[in-house]
Amino acid sequence: MMHIYKERLTIVLVVSALIVTSFSIMNNYSYAAGDAEHTGMIHGGKSVLNMHVELMVEPGVIEPNRVVAFYAKFMDNVTGELLNDIPHTLVLVTSDGKELLREHAERADYRHTFVFGEEHKGQLIVRIEGINNTDESLEFPLTVIPEFPYVILTIAVASTLVLIMNRGRWLRI
Fold first, then answer.
1. In Å, what is the CA distance from 46 to each residue of 50, 92, 127?
2. Is the pLDDT of residue 12 over 70?
3. Residue ranges of the domains in the chain?
4. Is the N end or the C end of the chain the one with fewer CB atoms within 10 Å?
């Protein structure tokens, strides 16, 4: 008799794990900007006008209703020397082409900030244009992820606990 309860408990735990995993996959919990990631910060780099341009976005996971900071770093392509006096415009663009932010800065160490709303979930483009007062620009892909569905997770955990407490009486195998 005890063997049957162990089997039922195993089935309940496996089903619960699958439910939680499927919600995580459905909500697309990936994020990226450019080519590399750093702890707590999204980081990407590209080259233009004999400069290496790095975009850093903080925090590393971009969720709606949180302040997001954007930093552009400009370096000499050959020496790696940091260049501070590089005018540029940071533009945030949705996948359908709508501009969310257009902010000009005269210096590379300027901190651009923006708060994404629920309606901004999904793919975006961060464009740095007018680099050093030219027509040159760079684009970095960015994903705003939906908030984690804690309510659904709570329901899944509660359902699992109810099944365990009832010793699987609802599961007749």
1. 11, 17, 12
2. no
3. 36-144
4. N
Following DSSP, what letter does each residue of 29-98 receive, concatenated?
----STTEEETTEEEEEEEETTEEEEEEEESSS--TTSEEEEEEEEEETTT--EE----EEEEEEETTS-
The answer to whether 106 and 85 are in contact (CB under 8 A) is yes
- Model confidence pLDDT, tens digit, residues 142-170: 888 776 555 566 667 766 766 666 665 55
State which CATH number among 3.40.50.10050, 2.30.110.10, 1.10.600.10, 2.60.40.1930 fits the domain covering 36-144: 2.60.40.1930
Q: Residues 48, 43, 61, 115: is their CA dihedral positive or negative?
A: negative
Q: Which of 119, 144, 133 is nearest to 57 (CA)?
A: 144
Contacts of 138 (CB under 8 A, 6+ apart): 46, 48, 53, 55, 127, 128, 129, 131
pLDDT (0 to 100) of residue 109:
83
Instruction: Answer whether 0.70 is exceeded by the pTM.
Output: no
- pLDDT tens for residues 31-65? 344 433 334 566 678 888 889 998 999 988 888 88
- Two tokens at 73? 């770093």
